[in-house]
Amino acid sequence: MPPLMRPVYSSGITAVGHDPETNELHVTWSGGRTSVYQNVPPEVAHQTANSWSVGKAMNVIKADPEQFPHRYLDGSDAS
Predict the structure, then answer these.
(1) Backbone angles phi, psi at 20, to 5 degrees
(2) CA angle, corner 67, sides to 3 and 23, nearest 5?
(3) At CA 9, angle to CA 49 and CA 48, rounded to 5?
(4) Residue 78 covered by a domain
(5) Looking at the chain, which runs of residues are DSSP E strands?
(6) Half-sphere exposure of 49 toward its Cβ, with a 13 Å CA cutoff?
(7) Residue 55 belongs to a domain
(8) How far is CA 79 from CA 22, 26, 63, in A?
(9) Is 48 a member of any domain?
(10) What is the DSSP letter of 68?
């Protein structure tokens, strides 16, 4: 079950949510698709969701796919 999603102010992202039990960060993009990033500690998720630029904060996570593997919520591979 996805975590509670919190709306964010961003042109490319509509909401984020973090599951502290699995350390998964869920990101819903403005196009409607939801990405799931693994191994995201709660403090990184909190900083991302509360960043002045959520998109720039997400770029840091997206830039390190080895540390933060990515998939789409529908199960498809992100590559």
Answers:
(1) -70, -20
(2) 20
(3) 15
(4) no
(5) 6-7, 13-19, 24-29, 34-37, 70-72
(6) 19
(7) yes
(8) 22, 17, 13
(9) yes
(10) S
Range of 52's domain? 6-72
Size of the chain in residues: 79
30, amino acid identity? S
- What's the total number of domains in the chain? 1
- Look up the pTM and report it: 0.90
- Please report how the helices 42-49 and 54-62 are oriented relative to each other, as an axis angle in degrees rounded to 10: 140
Written as six digits, the tokens of 50 are 């509360």
- Token pair for residue 67? 């540390």
Q: If pLDDT is split at 50, 70 and 90, which confidence band does 78 have?
A: low
79 domain-assigned: no
Tokens of 55: 């998109």
Residues 23, 71: Cα–Cα separation, whole Å: 14
Could you read off the pLDDT of 4-40 as tens digits, one per residue? 999 999 999 999 999 999 999 999 999 999 999 999 9
